[in-house]
Write a structure and sequence with these properties.
Layout (H helix, E strand, L loop, with lengths): L39 H27 L1 E5 L5 E5 L22 H10 L6 E4 L6 E6 L4 H14 L3 E3 L6 E5 L6
Antiparallel strand pairs: 1-2, 3-4, 4-6, 5-6
Length: 177
């Protein structure tokens, strides 16, 4: 009787194959990522932004559904007819154009805080739904930069370093302390 032939190490075993790297079965493609932890105030601002987008969509749906009319036929049955609804619903302003837009107390607080620096900075309240963006008009220098930076930190903002596009961001919502 002869010895049974040695089996290769791969026979009879299930080999794990990676979808990411077939040459390395241990590579799962998932690196250990630490979850990003956001402050509650930032989380609430993000939720507010999403809710604002949902509200806008609901308003456009409401406008479309209002175009649907229910009519009575002579037999007493109810039929519905759909008027030709536009594919793109125009955005209606929340406030009449002849009336000034109401300003929140937080925006007034931010404007008041930066009033001494109005020659050095611009306040952009419209480009971001969650933040007021404070951009320098010119090179601030160390003294002016520190004054503006401390004012930003006092009202809950922070500095965003992006080279020439660097700016300060101040949340439109009041931060909880």
């Amino acid at each position: 009787m002869s010895d049974p032939q040695p089996q290769s190490p791969q026979e009879g075993k299930v080999v794990k194959k990676s979808f990411v790297n077939p040459d390395n079965p241990e590579d799962t493609g998932q690196e250990a990522k630490k979850p990003e932890v956001l402050e509650p105030a930032v989380t609430l601002m993000l939720i507010y932004g999403k809710l604002d987008a949902i509200l806008t969509e609901l308003k456009s749906l409401n406008l479309t559904f209002n175009k649907v009319k229910t009519t009575q036929t002579p037999t007493g049955s109810t039929t519905t007819s759909i008027e030709s609804a536009p594919t793109q619903v125009p955005q209606q302003p929340a406030v009449a154009p002849d009336q000034p837009k109401p300003i929140s107390p937080r925006i007034l607080q931010i404007r008041q805080k930066f009033d001494p620096f109005k020659d050095l900075i611009t306040l952009d309240e419209e480009s971001d739904t969650l933040f007021v963006v404070v951009r320098p008009k010119q090179y601030l220098g160390a003294e002016n930069f520190s004054k503006i930076s401390s004012a930003v930190r006092e009202i809950g903002g922070n500095y965003v370093s992006q080279g020439k596009a660097s700016h300060f961001k101040v949340p439109k919502a009041e931060p909880k302390r």
